[in-house]
Amino acid sequence: MMVVECLSRTENLGDVNYLYNYRLVKGQMTTNIKCEKILVQTYGIEIERQDFVSGTMENIERDCVENISPQRHKVHNLLRMLHENGVSPLHLIDVLGEYIDTYINDYDLYASDVATNN
């Protein structure tokens, strides 16, 4: 997994500062097309929240969903939505669940395109 892009934001609540990092990550997965193994470049999202109390890091929360789609622009748009709405890593799956269910079809489209071009 490789970080392709990172968006950050901070929130201050009393004496606690939260630093959020939203990362677009790139990976690979193998799929079979016409009995041939093909490497597919995939994109996912990682969110990390660091909690600072009086300047000292007290806690880190992190979650990641890999292989959301082979289409970078779709995952990038999800990344921006999460960043703009300040989504916590604790809620990543709750927010992305329906998108992930829909974007799974992108792999079928990718396989169809590869099969057609070969």
Largest sheet: 4 strands, antiparallel
What is the string of helix and strand elements? Answer: EEEEHHH
The helix count comes to: 3
Radius of gyration: 17 Å
Structural class: alpha+beta
Mean pLDDT value: 92
Task: Order the strands across the largest sheet as they lie in space.
Answer: 1-2-3-4
- Measured as a percent range, the helix fraction is 25-40%
Query: Globular, elongated, flat, extended or rod-shaped: what is the shape?
Result: elongated
Q: How many domain modules?
A: 1
Q: In terms of per-residue confidence, which ranges show pLDDT below 50 for 5 or more consecutive residues? A: none
Strand content: over 45%
What gap, in angstroms, lies between the N and C termini? 28 Å
Overall strand count: 4
Describe the structure.
By secondary structure, the protein is of the alpha+beta class. It has one domain. Helix content is 32%, strand content 53%. The chain contains 3 helices and 4 strands; from the N terminus they run ββββααα. It has a 4-stranded antiparallel β-sheet. The radius of gyration is 17 Å and the shape is elongated.
Architecture blueprint of SSEs:
Blueprint: E1 2-13, E2 16-33, E3 36-53, E4 56-69, H1 72-84, H2 92-103, H3 105-117
Antiparallel strand pairs: 1-2, 2-3, 3-4
